[in-house]
Write a structure and sequence with these properties.
This protein has 423 residues and is α/β, with parallel strands linked by helices. It contains 10 helices and 32 strands. It has a 7-stranded mixed β-sheet, with helices on both faces. It starts with a strand and ends with a strand. Bound molecules: guanosine-5'-triphosphate (GTP). Guanosine-5'-triphosphate binds next to β1, β4 and α4.
Length: 423
């Protein structure tokens, strides 16, 4: 069997809820548990037998970070990886239609389509088994998971035939409750899916031809969810495969902390060597911790659980870090304490300073959880409690407290802050 994977990485106008971190690096390359978000996607699909190629589709200008990622991942996973750039945002299905010749080159039997902004223990082999048992001519299997009624309203909702798992009804972000089965943004597709994509493309062209082209939307935009899944429901061509494994979207910085925790947990099974261990002359480790080999961590530091320390970071005496991601080149000076926070690239935290956020995880014990309110502000204009995010190259002085705040890059702080966005 010959397989390919397409990862939709979006572009510069996407990932706005991930600011200020996405100002520095494309969100799909933001490191979680020590590796870029889409490294985890590539790793999962490289393990499926027959996987020949991974194609990243987005509308970022090609850049050094993306090139470095591709080179490194190709070497590590021994798989061909390419980036195809859309000339504009073509939507979640427009890009694959535009690049259909490249996707279909070599006649793949099936291809996975993955949104870059999700994380999880992706059951790709199980999806393949499920999909290949469905009737010939099935277009697509959607990975689905169970959400609460409230959570479901911000996702694509699926009503299924309980016996066959056929998708009978699909509504993207419904206004009222439809179903607790939600779309995880991971699909297995047959090449026949290009049939309905072509129909939709031609319909768009016709509509655009008949209207004033100066005001019409870009004619090649096709949205997989609304334009393709909605009409395919109840036609016998669309199925849902259920997972109870860890899965979440990564829309905001708070979600990255959640993803970090779960990917570290997965390392017990997939990469135990990546998890730091306690030993004499080394920092004290509590629970799951990843420390990049180039980081210098003082032996009196206490780390964990759920901590990632990036490349070339320096952590001084008595430093305490919990439920946080410390990005490349950050310096945590002696006795500072970082809880539920992300510390940006090359930022400096002064001695005895405390950086603290508030996790907002309504379902800490459930594998699926919508991590936090994605709104930055409450309806009455207050900042929602969130993790603390320190942007890149920020200087935080000694002996201050920064609580539930977001600090934009290149700031030099001079005091304590609580519930603020520091511009
Ligand atoms: P929001 O809640 O508005 O973010 O919607 P959503 O969760 O349905 O996400 P959305 O459809 O915007 O994006 C899903 C995935 O597709 C993300 O990884 C995006 O980066 C990616 N994506 C979205 N639009 C495009 C596009 O036009 N081109 C490409 N290549 N990727 C896209």
């Amino acid at each position: 069997m010959m397989l390919k994977t397409i990862i939709l990485i979006g572009g510069p106008m996407k990932g706005t809820r991930f600011r200020p971190l996405s100002l520095e690096t494309p969100k799909p390359l933001f490191p979680v548990a020590g590796f870029p978000i889409i490294h985890h996607h590539v790793e999962a699909c490289a393990q499926v037998e027959g996987m020949k190629e991974v194609i990243l589709i987005g509308f970022y200008q090609p850049n050094d970070a993306l090139n470095r990622f591709i080179t490194q991942a190709q070497q590590q996973f021994k798989i061909q990886i390419r980036y195809l750039q859309e000339y504009t945002a073509l939507g979640t299905a427009g890009g694959i239609y535009h690049f259909r010749d490249q996707i279909l080159a070599g006649n793949p039997d099936y291809f996975f389509l993955m949104n870059a902004d999700v994380c999880g223990d992706f059951p790709l082999k199980e999806m393949l088994q499920f999909h290949t048992k469905k009737p010939m001519g099935t277009y697509c299997t959607i990975l689905g998971t169970e959400a609460t009624r409230q959570q479901s309203l911000t996702y694509g909702c699926i009503v299924e035939n309980k016996d066959t798992h056929e998708v009978m009804h699909y509504v993207e972000k419904p206004e009222t409750f439809i179903s607790t089965i939600i779309n995880c943004g991971i699909y297995l597709c047959s090449p026949a899916l290009f049939g309905p994509l072509e129909v939709e493309f031609k319909k768009n062209l016709e509509q655009n031809y008949n209207c004033d082209y100066t005001t019409a939307p870009a004619k090649e935009v096709i949205r997989m969810e609304q334009d393709i899944f909605v009409p395919l429901a109840s036609t016998g061509k669309l199925y849902v495969y259920h997972t109870n494994k860890f899965w979440s979207q990564i829309k905001s910085a708070g979600a990255a902390i959640y993803a970090n925790r779960h990917y570290l947990d997965l390392y017990h099974k997939s990469h135990p060597e990546r998890l730091a261990k306690n030993s004499v002359g080394k920092p004290q480790i509590r629970g799951d911790v990843f420390i990049h080999p180039s980081a210098q961590v003082h032996e009196t530091a206490v780390l964990g659980p759920n901590v990632t320390i990036g490349k070339n970071c320096v952590l001084g005496e008595g430093v305490r870090v919990r439920d946080s991601v410390i990005l490349e080149g950050a310096v945590l000076q002696d006795h500072c304490c970082v809880l539920d926070s992300i510390i940006g690239w090359n930022s400096q935290i002064g001695v005895w300073t405390r950086i603290e956020g508030t996790p907002n995880d309504p379902n800490p014990n459930k594998p699926f959880a919508k991590i936090e309110t994605t709104q930055t502000f409450t309806n009455d204009g207050k900042l929602n409690p969130s993790i603390t995010v320190i942007g890149s190259d920020v200087q935080v002085p000694s002996e201050v407290i920064i609580l539930n705040s977001i600090v934009l890059p290149n700031k030099e702080l001079s005091g304590c802050y609580k519930n603020q966005i520091i511009l």
